[in-house]
Fold this sequence. Notes:
Elements: H1 3-36, H2 39-66, H3 73-125
Helix pairs in contact: 2-3
Amino acid sequence: MTDKDMILNERERELVRELEEYKREKERVKRLLGTMGGHVTGKREIFINILFLLVVLAFVALEIATHFLPPFVSLEVGLLFLSVKIVWMMYNARRVNHFQFWILNSIEYRVNQLDRKLNEIDRRVR
Length: 126
């Protein structure tokens, strides 16, 4: 085996190792994305939105039909649910922003690694 063949085999092993590392990281990001959101979260949000709407409509119907409730109760309940919904949306936005920061931080780390490798290769070539 020549030196050139040994260098090629070593480079092939390094590429295979990097590919396996990439696949592991890809699977980790998939799992993380699955826990952060996705189809289940969408269904849950739709359910909660429908529940909020039904409760507000029920109070409006009770107020109009029976006058059993004091005036403006449905308005107050609607404002309460609106406030809860806004707080919940702010919480979800905070989670998304945190996740985006994590992704950007990870990309920056990888770019820095690649920059170091490129500088090292450039140094070796010269």
